[in-house]
Amino acid sequence: MPARPCTYGTRIAARRAASAARVTTTSRETTAGGPPREPSYQQLQQESHIRTIAAERSAATAAEPVDDFQPITAMWARNAAQWGDIVAVRDVHRVPPVELTYRQLHEAVQDFAAGLKAAGLQQGNKVCLFAESSSRWIVADQGILLNGAADAVRGSSSPVDELAFITQHSGSCALVLQDRATLVKLLPTLLAGQQGQQGPQPFKFIAMLWQDEQQQPGSRPASRAASSSSSSSSSSSGSEEYQQAVAQLEAAGVAVLGYEAVLAAGGQLRAGGRWEAVGCSRSSLATLVYTSGTTGHPKGVCLSHGNLAYQVNHLDYFLQVSPGDSSLSLLPPWHIYQRTAAYYLFSRGACEVFSSLRTFRDDLAAYPPDHFVCVPLVLDSLHSKVMAKLKAEATGAKGAIVAALLAASAAHVAARRTVAGLDLTYARASAPAAVQLAALVTMAVTTPLYALAQNLVFSKVRAALGVRKTIVSGGGSLPPHLDSWYEALGLPVLNGWGLSETSPVLACRRLIANVRGSVGLPVPGTRLLVVDPTSHKPLPDGQQGLILAAGPGVMAGYYNDAAATRKAFIDGWFDTGDLGWRAPAGVAGSNMAGHIVLSGRAKDTIVLLSGKNVEPAPIEAALERCPLIKHALLLGQDRRELGALVFPDEEALAAAGGLDNIDGNDEKLQAQLAHEVAKYNSTRPDYRPEDHIGHIQVIRAPLSVESGTLTRTMKPRRPAIMELYAPQVQQLLGRLRG
């Protein structure tokens, strides 16, 4: 018999019955199959009107009285009143599965908040929230914020030394942890902190979100830093290690509380009228987000209630969500990209279905989402799986037909971009008349084939992928071939850009004028300035430079790190560290004015011995188009030529076992991949002689979050890779001409 959903409502029904107002359920409109269509070319002319609205909204935001400010925590009462019976969260991989309506979620958040107050949490405190994606994460997060406290967030699977640093650096007085294994893992840190603190005890309590039996096997991410004793502690809820840990902590004056105990204590406090939410201003600290990017020691990004509310209140400029829509939650909730997206989706009455990197392919089919928030590597994985399946199933004449339809579709969407004025090639200078005419002819010729491809191929692919409306991609650059493939597929991809320090979205693409290859338009109210990387003088539109940002989403600074804060700003503008340019206005036939195009990271620029500057990101993205290459990293600083570390896609290598030169022989594999690198690099439209890659070094080891070589948004962590594979790096550098 399948497990019954565990609902919170049964425990609160009696308490609410006397005072609850009946709320009419908002019914969800069903949409005929398929994703939303791209806008017609006539709609592109609305851009000037759209920008006027954006300017008006920005002015209105700036003029909004402080007294009218509503933090994101205020949305739960509103949601319960408007959409009380709509399902808010589905935690399908718990035992039993969890399902909460907005009314039930509102009650849970309030009870947890009151329970934390009963345990000693006060306004202005900070709490470490070390947990992974689940319905209880949002309850804990919002419960902390409702008390006027702030949370310092991180995943429970992060290394012990990283969690220990955050615990100490944030000055937290309590912790909310994923499970018992996390507590056992952190025990030495907790006891050391407790014993080393002078005066009041540093930790008031520790709350546990999940019991071990409530987590299905594989649902809890493995920690790359957990000790063998930590691993054994997760074998049962009553393990001896855990009981010993609790005894030691309680002896040291730290209360260890279960999730249900916190809720029960909060319910009693609320029933007696002894709890109410704490009001917060725009400047009130909401959260400390510790950077986990591609560089060294984490810094605590101070994000205020105003930062978070600004994002939630303005993301409808890019993504339209209706009450009852669903979203599949794949990324860790403590990552600000996923967190802000979830806040926005909740604010619009959507249902969040919790998934993971291990289960998302199956979950896409089992729980088809209207909106899918992900990172480029996930889109690449889905693309690779689909193409491999098409190649395996469509052989002979059928394979030739499918290949022809795919090629015709690619040609059709490329021509359509040119006709619509959305081809970045012509963002800075008009497309010649001959190019425009050729695009019109190509569109006309390929339209029947494109329609046929939609019916015979793409409709089946969309059904298999499961996404019904929109894909939102962030956390990294979207390779051009993926952009083109999903465009041909008919699934709109809204690619965005931002940083933890900007809470996070700075710019994003829109359904109207979805300029592939760009990161879209700035969030209304956000200002972006392109400057010379050396002199910091503003540059004209169309010219590449360093991008600076200012606006309501930008952080106040790094926690307890004045030096890093000063370094992060240039004359009051936040230094994003990204290189790029803004599409200029006034280009005949272009509908791309104002769109932001990224070209790389300033700190990643490779300066060759010749003095030529090379931006590695576009080259690395081109190499990763090769089905046999999972990741590529360029080297060559102060050398005469470039080299590349190449991490093969082992699944693709196994599938290509019958190809020439692909076998267990490393020399043959090295030669084959060197050939692929040369081909994919030299065929880039913007290839230059200095972009030539002289040598490669193949590393037969996958990059992963667990090994520390990938961030949680699946971007390679260059310093960690250079350190872990130092011998291979030195071997490659030794072969480059210097």
Automatic annotation (TrEMBL):
Q: Which InterPro entries match?
A: AMP-bd_C_sf (IPR045851), AMP-binding_CS (IPR020845), AMP-dep_synth/lig_dom (IPR000873), ANL_N_sf (IPR042099), Chloroplast_AMP-bd_Enzymes (IPR052987)
Q: Where is the composition biased (Low complexity)?
A: 17-32, 217-239
Q: Pfam families of this UniProt entry? A: AMP-binding (PF00501), AMP-binding_C_3 (PF23562)
Tell me the ranges covered by the AMP-dependent synthetase/ligase domain, including all copies. Answer: 77-559
Which residue intervals make up region (Disordered)?
17-42, 216-239
Against PANTHER family, the record matches this protein to: ACYL-ACTIVATING ENZYME 16, CHLOROPLASTIC-RELATED
Name of the featured protein: AMP-dependent synthetase/ligase domain-containing protein
The root-end lineage is: Eukaryota, Viridiplantae, Chlorophyta, core chlorophytes, Chlorophyceae
